[in-house]
C-alpha cells in the first residue's frame, strides 16, 4: 500500500484511466478533432457545393490573406471587439459588481427578487429571449417605443449594435453578479468597518479596500465573459448580422459564409482566427494569474 | 436622518427600481402575449383568451419538438454528468501520469474551443458520418462541448470530499465500486446535481448545434422550431410563438426554482480567484 496516500479510493491507475477514457474520447472526437480539422479546412478552398466540394485543393494561407483584405471580415472584427468591450468587459462587469455591492445591504426579500430576475434572464433559452427582445425593440408596438413615446423607431434596424450590447448586458450580467457576490463575501468585514469609520466614501472603499481582495476574481470574470461574448451566437437570433452587415459579429459572419455562402474553407480560416484569438486571451490570462500567485 | 441621508436613500431605491425594471420588463411579454386575443411583438394588457393555447397544442410540430428537446437534452445531460463524474473522481484521487497537463489542457479547451469556432468541421463531420438529423449524434456533440467544463467544476467538488471517508470504508473491506456508489457519490451529490442542472439548462437552450445538425422539421428540438414558426402568410406565427415560448421556458424555470430552494444559487468552491 505504498501509494495509499495518493490513491485513497483504491482505484489503481489502470481503472482510473478507464474512468477518464470515455470522457476524453468524446472530447477528442467532438471538440479536439473538429478544432484541428478547422485548421486543415482553413487552408483549403473547400465548398459546400460545386467542384471544390468533391475535390478541395490546398490553397495555403490564401484564405487568411483574403480575410485580412475582406472588408466584411475587418468590419466584423471591429464589431466583435466593440461587442465584447461594451457588453462584457464594461457592461456586465460593472453592472454585475454594482448589483453584488448594492444588494449586500438591502432587505432579503428585495434582494431575492432582483437576483431571481437577473438569473432568469440568464437561464431562459436564447430563442425565447430573442422574442422577448423583439417585443421590447420592435417598431410600432415595441415596449421601448411605447415607454419613450416614439413608436416609429425600429431599434434593431436603426441602432443594431447598441441594441445588441444592451441586450447582452441584460442576458449575461447574472454570472458576474454571482461571481462578485461570492468574492465580496471573502472581503474581511473588519476592513470595511474600518474604512467606514475613517469616513471613506463608497467609491474609496471599493477602490482601496475591496478591489485588492478581488483582483483575481475580476480577472477570472473578465476572461470568461469576454470569451463567451466573443463566441456568442445569439446576435444571429436578434439581427442575423443585418441590416447590411452592421451587426455581423464574427460568429454570425462565419455561419453566413459557411452555411449560406457555402464557402467552408474560407469560413474555417475565419474560425481559425477566432480560435487563435480565444487562445491568446486565455494564455494572457493564465500568465497574469500565475504572476499574481 | 439628515437630508443628505434621505436623498441618498431615495437615489438608492430609484437605482434599484431602474435595474429591476430593466430586467423585468422584457419578461412581462411572456406573461401577457400567450393569453392575449391579438398577441403582438409588444406589451399590452391582454384581452384574455385560451385560443392561443389550443392553437399551439393543435400545431403539428409544437409538442413533438418539445419531446425532441427532452430526448436530446436528457441524452446530452446524462452522458455529460456520468462521464464527467467518473473522470473527475479518477482525476481527483489517482495521480495518472500527465494528469496536471491534462487538467491544464481541459481548462484551456473548455474556454477556447467553442461550438461557434468549430461549427464548420462539426457540420462536415456529421454530414460525412450520416449523422445529420440524428438525435443521438447531436446530443453527443453537445455533450462533448460541455464535458471539459463539467469535469473541471466537478473535480473541485470531488477534491472537497474527505479522503478519510473512503479510507475507512476500505478498511471495512468495501470494493472500489462500493466506495464510489455508497461513499463518494452521496457526499458529492450537490456537485453532481449542480453539473446535472447546468448541463440540462445548457443543452435545453442550445440553438446553434441543433440548428446546424437537425435539418428535418419533425426531428427538430424546440429551440430550432421556435425560430421557424411561420404562418401561411410567411410572417412570424404570433398565435403559437408566445404560448410555445412559455411552454419551452417552463422546464428551466422549474429547475431554477428547485435549485434555488434546495441549494441556493451561489458559487461555492467552484470558482477560484
From TrEMBL, chain A:
Coiled coil: none annotated. Keywords: Cell membrane, Membrane, Transmembrane, Transmembrane helix, Transport. The chain crosses the membrane at residues 16-40, 77-102, 114-134, 154-170, 264-286. The keyword Transport applies. Pfam families: BPD_transp_1 (PF00528). The keyword Membrane applies. Its main location: membrane. Residues 78-285 form the ABC transmembrane type-1 domain. It is a multi-pass membrane protein. InterPro entries: MalF_N, MetI-like, MetI-like_sf. It comes from the Bacteria. It is found in: Cell membrane. This is Amino acid ABC transporter permease. It comes from Lentzea cavernae.
TrEMBL record, chain B:
Gene3D superfamilies: MetI-like. It is found in: Cell membrane. Belongs to the binding-protein-dependent transport system permease family. Residues 66-259 form the ABC transmembrane type-1 domain. Keywords: Cell membrane, Membrane, Transmembrane, Transmembrane helix, Transport. It comes from Lentzea cavernae. The chain crosses the membrane at residues 12-31, 66-89, 101-124, 136-154, 234-259. Its main location: membrane. This is Sugar ABC transporter permease. InterPro entries: BP-dep_ABC_trans_perm (IPR050901), MetI-like (IPR000515), MetI-like_sf (IPR035906). It is a multi-pass membrane protein.
